[in-house]
Structures are given as structure tokens and as C-alpha cells.
């Protein structure tokens, strides 16, 4: 697993790590049942505190992307509650779209961006 933390970013390390794992799941780099590195191993590999990795893993668990297995460690286990996922997506997108409106980005431009992102994820699946 290749994780790149931008140490100069204003975004918290645990958020960067969480987002990269979500991207990895979306890009099929990680599949249902795959093990993620241990907290200690990942912290050492990328040079961050173990508590930071643990916080990212906890968020991923709460959001339904992973489960904790006593024998296997952290395992990709996507929660397929689509209704809940769509509610969360709507709430997240409200903020993103409000930012777009503030920057005079049109609905058509947003649709182009969304289509491109979905196309990027689809092309990585092949």
C-alpha cells in the first residue's frame, strides 16, 4: 500500500490517510476482505504517529469501510447500506456544491467534473 502524506498540507494527517484508503477502495486497490497494514506498521512506513493511523482506521470503521477482526486486524468490509450512504453523500455534497456556487461554478461544470471522476474510477476497475 502506497500512502503519501503531504506534511505541508493544512489537512490533518488522519484525514489524508482516511481519504487515500477510501480512494484505494474505490480504485479497487483494496477489495472486500483485504487486510490493511497494522497501525504500527503503517505508522512506521509513512513516518507518522500510531495514534494518527488509529484515528483514521477508527473513522473508516465508523463510516463502514473497514471492520476490526481480532485475528486478521483491519479488514476492508464495505457497508452496503445504500440509503444511509446516499444521505451522507447528500450532506457532504451540500458543502461542496455551496463552495462551487460561491466560486461561480455552474451546474453543468459540476456535472462534467462528476462524470470525469466516475469515468476515472471506472477506467481503473478494468
Strand content: 5-15%
Shape: globular
| pLDDT < 50 runs, ≥5 residues | none
Strand order, sheet with most strands: 1-2
Strands, count = 2
Tally of helical segments:
5
User: What is the share of helical residues?
Assistant: 55-70%
- Compute the CA-based radius of gyration: 16 Å
Q: What number is the mean pLDDT? A: 92
End-to-end CA span: 19 Å
Biggest sheet architecture: 2 strands, antiparallel
By helix and strand content, what is the structural category?
Answer: mainly alpha
Order of helices and strands: HHHEEHH
Describe the structure.
A two-stranded antiparallel sheet has the order 1-2. By secondary structure, the protein is mainly alpha-helical. The model has no long low-confidence stretch (mean pLDDT 92). It contains five helices and two strands. The radius of gyration is 16 Å and the shape is globular. Strand 1 (66-69) and strand 2 form a beta hairpin. Helix 1 (13-26) packs across helix 3 (50-62) and helix 2 (39-46) crosses helix 3 (50-62). The chain starts with 12 loop residues before the first helix and ends with a helix.
How does the SSE layout of this entry go?
Elements: H1 13-26, H2 39-46, H3 50-62, E1 66-69, E2 73-76, H4 82-102, H5 107-124
Antiparallel strand pairs: 1-2
Helix pairs in contact: 1-3, 2-3
Compact summary:
The two termini are 19 Å apart.
Amino acid at each position: 500500500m502506497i500512502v503519501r502524506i503531504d506534511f505541508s498540507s493544512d489537512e490533518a494527517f488522519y484525514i489524508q490517510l482516511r481519504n487515500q484508503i477510501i480512494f484505494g477502495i474505490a480504485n479497487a486497490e483494496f477489495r472486500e476482505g483485504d487486510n490493511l497494514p497494522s497501525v504500527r506498521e503503517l505508522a512506521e512506513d509513512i513516518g507518522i504517529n500510531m495514534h494518527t493511523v488509529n484515528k483514521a482506521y477508527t473513522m473508516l470503521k465508523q463510516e463502514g469501510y473497514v471492520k476490526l477482526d481480532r485475528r486478521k486486524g483491519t479488514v476492508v468490509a464495505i457497508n452496503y447500506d445504500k440509503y444511509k450512504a446516499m444521505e451522507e453523500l447528500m450532506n457532504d455534497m451540500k458543502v461542496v456544491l455551496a463552495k462551487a456556487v460561491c466560486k461561480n461554478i455552474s451546474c453543468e461544470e459540476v456535472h462534467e467534473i462528476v462524470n470525469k471522476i466516475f469515468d476515472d474510477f471506472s477506467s481503473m476497475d478494468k
